[in-house]
Write a structure and sequence with these properties.
With about 160 residues, the protein is an all-alpha fold. The protein has eight helices and two strands. About 5% of the residues have low confidence.
């Protein structure tokens, strides 16, 4: 959804739900996905279209189908004041004192993550001309200077040279 939202077309294509643009429909769909009360079959045709490298028209039709399907009714607001979860990545100060807790909190916030999904890069970024060259140039720039942001032997560095 984030990849679709980042496309300029999502801000200029019309909404099918009365919003200012398709971008707003995508925001609503994104919220439904993260609510935990979402049927993944709703976006399966869209994912299939992207992974099968269908023409743009087919993909945008699948986007419209995904955003126009009915969403579950909103949950009634509780009359009891909810106490927010106190541990999230926004609650950490930028210090080494709390760094050891970040991985666990990130796992809880993000949920299931997938790595090395076959064809993902090509499906989402393959149509961006020159992306690999630009990404390599940025990466090379991060390795330059007396205090580089990346070192082959130790990985990413903070601004002060400490490991990230």
């Amino acid at each position: 959804m984030l990849a679709l939202q980042s496309l300029p077309a999502s801000r200029s294509l019309p909404s099918k739900r009365g919003n200012p643009a398709l971008f707003n429909d995508l925001l609503s769909l994104n919220s439904a996905i993260f609510s935990g009360n979402f049927d993944t079959a709703r976006i399966r045709p869209l994912l299939d279209a992207v992974l099968n490298k269908e023409p743009d028209e087919v993909i945008w039709d699948a986007v419209y189908d995904a955003v126009t399907e009915s969403t579950p009714p909103p949950r009634p607001a509780s009359s009891i004041q909810q106490t927010p979860w106190l541990h999230n990545t926004g609650s950490f100060a930028n210090s080494t004192e709390h760094r050891k807790y970040v991985d666990g909190v990130l796992r809880e916030e993000l949920g299931q993550l997938y790595v090395e999904v076959p064809g993902f890069f090509e499906a989402y970024f393959g149509s961006v001309p020159g992306l690999e060259l630009v990404a390599q140039a940025v990466f090379d720039k991060c390795k330059e200077g007396d205090n580089p942001l990346y070192r082959e032997e130790s990985g990413c560095q903070g601004r002060n040279g400490s490991l990230m």
